[in-house]
Amino acid sequence: MAESIHVPLASLLSAKEHPHAFSTPSRTEPVRAGDPAAPVPEFSGGGTFFIETFGCQMNEHDSEKVVGVLLRRGYRQVASPDQARLVFYNTCSIREKAAQKVFSRLGEFNPKNNFGRDSGKVIGVLGCVAQQEGEEIFERAPWVSLVCGSASYRELPLLLARLEAGENRVTGLETDTDETFETELTRRNHPFRAYLTIIEGCDKACSYCVVPYTRGPERSRASESILREVRELADVGYTEIQLLGQTVNSYRDPSNRHLSFAELLLAVAEVPGIRRVRFMTSHPRDMGADIVAAIDSSPALCDHVHLPVQSGSTRVLRAMQRTYTREEYLEKISLIRGARKPISITTDFIVGFPGETERDFEETLSLMELAQFDSAFSFQYSPRPHTPAALMADPVPEAEKQRRLQVLQERQRAIQLQRNQALAGQVFEVLVEGASRRETQWTGRTSSNRSLNFTSSRTDLLGKYVRVRVTGAGPNSLTGNESIE
Ligand code: SF4
Predict the structure, then answer these.
(1) Ligand 1: distance of its center to the CA of 159 in Å?
(2) Distance in angstroms (rounded) separating the CA atoms of residues 53 and 163
(3) Which H or E run includes 403?
């Protein structure tokens, strides 16, 4: 049976979740395994580990499970690489900068800098860069001992055992699998929201994306196993669940129950104690009316859909192999906007894809105006190894990419401001996630995933649900006062 360590509430909020100046203590605090009988490995220097995670929420959650595996083997988590015997980097290769950062971290352990393996550390590279670069990592950084992609995480206990037995180099680089990574123990970082991966890998083949290469084929977790873990999470006090997957709504229950994604959402929402269910990231092609109907019918399903569009030009979408046209995407937007609930819609954009003309870019801007997104992540295209787009001709000059990104971000900011200002006077329930030092200012999230900073005369609100009246708005957050009605 899976076990979850529920860490004291205020101590472990991720700074990433809180862009504001609220208290968000470090999430790297050491946490001991719950099982004192777990064997302590024979590494000289003791069974201590440090892990740093780069990239997306999927990676963050993978690390929570990796930490669970290590704790279960008797290791103890420490707050810095200096204190650790085992140093792991869970890496991201979605953009070049993220991949470079990992090699700069590894460089800190170069024995030539008198800080390498002779200091007794075992260095491991996990995740997308591990999968992408494979054994070449040993060439670039010979002091690394473990290279393991996410599709091989279920092999981690075995790989650790081999390291503990004295092997110098071990790899887990298989991607041809139909298994998901399930752990006996997951050490969750977020005190109020529990992340839970329901589908791994990706069977789409977007021409710019490394994920199908680094995370392997799509494989879903059985619904009963998901629901069992949700019940356990509710038992230890979690009220908010976020279901994860690169294409979460492509979920296909491999068990005999054959639940659709919408049916799974409703089943999770019905678990006693669960008040909020979120999911991310949805692929537009698999966004159906049944999902919108499920959100409409269940108060626990949050009013938010993240639906990456990437471009507003059908020509560019084709080159990206996104499998929908501009018109089809806008139909999905109409479907969601037609719901009874005011579902917020957020998205991702890539500007400067090879061959993107000024006219294509104008189409992206016009789609943005039509869709009226509540928030957007936007990036300049950067070619990634092993992707078809990396070989495409007609690159957009860097300066032009930058200009387009700036124009797009300014327009999106104006849309957000306008949409947020329209919420003034309304009352929303927020889950309180952060507090100012004197506990007079609080921050929480609405069901629509907006950040709402508010004042209250009450104390001890962390983790509670509070009704807040909106009094002001910026492009990225709302402000308000607790509503006592
Ligand atoms: S849907 Fe496309 S962008 Fe998303 S993970 Fe799959 S291949 Fe990458």
Answers:
(1) 29
(2) 21
(3) helix 398-421
Measured CA to CA in angstroms, residue 78 lies from 28, 31, 49, 72, 153 at distances of 7, 8, 6, 15, 21
Q: Please state at what angle helix 156-164 crosses helix 57-72, rounded to 10 degrees.
A: 50
Mutate to test the pocket of ligand 1, among 132, 150, 215, 247 (most ligand atoms within 8 A of CB): 247
pLDDT band at 20 (very low <50, low <70, confident <90, very high): very low
Count CA within 13 A, CB hemisphere, residue 309. 32
Give the Cα separation of 191 and 45 in Å (integer): 31
Label residue 322 by pLDDT band (50, 70, 90).
very high
Look up the pTM and report it.
Answer: 0.86
Ranges assigned E (strand) in 353-404: 375-380
CB atoms within 10 A of CB 21: 12
More confident residue, 25 or 139: 139
Q: What is the pLDDT of residues 29-48, one digit of tens each?
A: 323 223 333 344 445 435 89
- Given a contact cutoff of 8 angstroms between Cβ atoms, the answer to whether 176 and 136 are in contact is no
Closest CA to 13 of 424, 477, 460, 463: 463
